[in-house]
């Protein structure tokens, strides 16, 4: 049995714990090392079982605690070359940090094989991750402006998927953000809206995916119930039944102790 725990999700910090067979990884450490270690403790996770950190991109809500966390535990940090360069330049990694570039062949850690795939976002070289856990497959795609062919291929057939459902378009359009920021969020290098995320989910169900976690919700331009309802209504319109054809959760801003098992 594999386990996913969304430790943090949203603009104030992102981090996901994924484990199988007693060994785990973190995808992003977007809050301080102290906060991340507390979140792991609150979920009965021994940090000594974490083998590595995988970084999606260099924005602070994804890398704020990476350097201290990785250096404290003495574990490697994997990222794309572009993300690595930005982390070094901006102080999110230093000479003590064991930074490694994830190549086209991916990374093998115990019973996990981790591959990256490109996403469209306004960063140096953002990526998502697909993890083969032997008996199950997992994928994460957040901070992306649209669902590309590479993203679709990576998420298809995965038993569990974390996917961005960042904003409600109506809330964003009438909200307090300045127009240039609104335009950036809605662009192809911005973030997935509830509508865009929801429209992709039926295709994933047909591919064999079954457990969905909606993630990286905007505090100002979204609400969990709105994101959930958009996804649920779209899947229902396609004749798909919750808890029969799929399960649907929304990642909390701070972990509530609920793990997704798959």
Which structural traits does this protein have?
single chain, 262 residues, alpha/beta, Metallo-beta-lactamase, Chain A, seven-stranded mixed beta sheet, 9 helices, 14 strands, 31% helix, globular
What is the N-to-C order of secondary-structure elements (H for helix, E for strand)? EEEHEHHEHEEEEEHEHHHEHEE
What strand line-up does the widest sheet have? 6-5-4-3-2-1-14
What's the CATH H-level homologous superfamily? Ribonuclease Z/Hydroxyacylglutathione hydrolase-like
Q: State the end-to-end distance.
A: 6 Å
Question: Nearest-angstrom radius of gyration?
Answer: 17 Å
Into which percent range does the helicity of residues fall?
A: 25-40%
Q: What is the name of the CATH class? A: Alpha Beta
Strand content bin: 25-35%
Q: What is the overall number of helices?
A: 9
CATH topology label: Metallo-beta-lactamase, Chain A
CATH architecture descriptor text: 4-Layer Sandwich
Derived from helix and strand composition plus strand pairing, the structural class reads alpha/beta
Number of strand elements:
14
Total count of domains = 1
How is the main sheet built? 7 strands, mixed
Give the overall shape. Answer: globular
Would you tell me the overall average pLDDT? 97
Unreliable stretches: none
């Amino acid at each position: 049995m594999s386990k996913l725990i969304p430790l943090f999700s949203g603009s104030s910090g992102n981090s996901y714990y994924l484990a199988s067979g007693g060994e785990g990884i973190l995808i992003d450490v977007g809050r301080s090392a102290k906060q991340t270690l507390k979140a792991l403790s609150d979920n009965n996770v021994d940090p000594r079982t974490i083998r590595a950190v995988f970084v999606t991109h260099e924005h602070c809500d994804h890398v704020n605690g990476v350097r201290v966390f990785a250096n404290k535990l003495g574990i490697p940090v994997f990222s794309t070359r572009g993300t690595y360069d930005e982390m070094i330049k901006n102080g999110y990694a230093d000479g003590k940090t064991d930074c490694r570039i994830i190549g086209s062949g991916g990374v093998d850690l115990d019973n996990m094989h981790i591959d990256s795939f490109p996403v469209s976002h306004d960063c140096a070289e953002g990526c998502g991750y697909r993890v083969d856990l032997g008996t199950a497959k997992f994928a994460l795609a957040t901070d992306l402006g649209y669902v590309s062919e590479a993203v679709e291929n990576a998420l298809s057939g995965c038993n569990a998927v974390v996917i961005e459902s960042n904003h409600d378009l109506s809330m964003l359009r009438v909200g307090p953000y300045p127009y240039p920021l609104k335009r950036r969020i809605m662009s192809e290098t911005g973030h997935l809206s509830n509508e865009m995320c929801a429209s992709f989910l039926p295709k994933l169900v047909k591919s064999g995916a079954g457990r969905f976690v909606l993630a990286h919700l905007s505090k100002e331009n979204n609400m969990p119930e709105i994101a959930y309802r958009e996804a649920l209504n779209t899947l229902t319109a396609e004749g798909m039944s919750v808890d029969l054809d799929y399960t649907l959760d929304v990642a909390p801003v701070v972990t509530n102790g609920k793990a997704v098992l798959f």
